[in-house]
# Entry
Amino acid sequence: MNILAIESSCDETAAAVVRDGREVLSNTVFSQIDIHKLYGGVVPEIASRCHVEKITPLVERAIADSGLSVLDIDAVAVTSAPGLIGALLVGLNFAKGFAYANGLPLVPVHHIRSHIAANYLVYPELEPPFLAMVVSGGHSHIVSVKGYTDYKIIGMTRDDAAGEAFDKGARVLGLPYPGGVEIDRLAKSGDPYAVKFPQVSFKDAPFDFSFSGVKTAVINYVHTAAQRGQSINAAEVAASYSEAITGVLTEKFFSAANELGFTRLVVAGGVSANSMLRHKLQSGLPRGCKLYIPPLSLCGDNAAMVGAQGFYEYRAGFIAGLDQNGFATADIQEALCKPKDGISF
Ligand code: KG4
Ligand code: ZN
# Structure
């Protein structure tokens, strides 16, 4: 089954063609980073307009690159939640038009589910059940993936997401947007134990995260030094800050896996590109466990992962009508539309 997949939830316009949820036939992305860089962050209105400009040529290119024709496409999958609502609606409305014009089923896909599904594209043997940690600009979740469309949240952030904390830390250190990758680069030359930044735990919810404290701590550290006229070692701060964030992510993920008895551990989302996090996950992996983490090219937002998850949503019968809406927020545990009868092959 060939799925045309579309992603436009934030600042990347992306289209891909994926076969049977596992094989990437084409994968095109237009990143708006250079545009939003001027403003130090994503400007939603500009993001929406940019998606409108890019989506048609990107879809045309994705189909051409796949070596298929429109007639070979069997369904259209599209990120429908969560994300910037104006940005989401561009992709969703394009997908509706494409599906209607070509008589194809429309499959709405949850963005965080699709981040997890990026791993299906690189690990053919990976199947639920497994434990997943999704760390992105807007989410930090530990999720039990019981089936391809069946999820239970084990822990989540109570305030800021890990990616948001990286971005704010980078900004206070004067690094350009997007900050996560810049702080990662700078941290490589600093001592991660030079500054002690706080790591938060909750007695009643041991797998929940909180990153607002560490974010405030780095802001205070930099501002206090500036007020005293002291210079800071930016690489040391970047490394110590990364240590605090990646340490708590790794520790809680492994402890959830141990307590719940999971041995297949999946990591996904933009922050899974972080080199310190990847090193900690690989070097500290508990005995008998296997780590699944996407290559850097599939950590950030892309449409191939939407095609992967879209296949399993379709198979479970989650086919939407043309009245399907997009949502700025959505629980990963809830389906985005009512299931039609399960589709069997
Ligand atoms: O998954 P993603 O591309 O978009 C969302 O769904 O949010 O994640 C973007 C987040 C941003 O906060 C970005 O700074 C962060 O992932 N990120 C990183 C790295 N690469 C991207 N954070 C730390 N280290 C990186 N290497
Ligand atoms: Zn994302």
